[in-house]
Design brief:
Layout lengths: L10 H21 L18 E14 L2 E14 L2 E7 L5 E7 L4 E4 L6 E2 L3 H9 L5 H7 L10 E5 L6 E6 L2 E8 L7 E10 L2 E9 L2
Family: Belongs to the LolB family.
Main location: membrane
Membrane topology: Lipid-anchor
Amino acid sequence: MPMMSRFSRGASRSARTLTLALACSAAALVTGCASLAPPAPVTSAAGASIEHYRGRFAVRYEQNGETRNTYGNFDWQQNGDNATVQLLDPLGQTQAIVRENPRRASLELPGKAPLSGPRLEDVMHDALGFALPVGGLRYWLRMQGAPGSQASIERDPQTQRPTQLKQDGWTIDYQAFFDGAPLRVKRIDLSRELGGSPLAVRLVIDE
């Protein structure tokens, strides 16, 4: 089965998605559910570099034996070792905020106290049904392996652009790049199978 084609399906699917999102937003207003405030902009510490990614995500995963799909927008701010990842629904409402640094990781959900644990991926999986490899992604978006474990990378023999990277059970396929220099990733597909449960993630970076 091809990986998620939600970004390329017709207007009818988009209309249904918008209708569902509007219904969910209306329900939240009626019930008075709290919403998450967007995270404050990251300010750079001395000597640290700030990376900022905005784009769209789609995730296909299994939960209770059923295949599920979710998608929306994301805003990723990386300041040195500190990462803040905001996941938004198609209408721009914040659904979750992930914060990670070398000392602590947490997940914030609307109307709930922040969740934390020794492994961010476990916290995300328990709360959302899927987990994004935030720690590794910051390096994979730079087209390099994360430190601390073995990584392999394949390149196009003509352009020397990376085509695939494998690390920690993840397969990262580099599907598209921005024009110009320096080389920057525009779209990557990630896949992993853990305990017989497949997980597929697509990230399309808009800026």
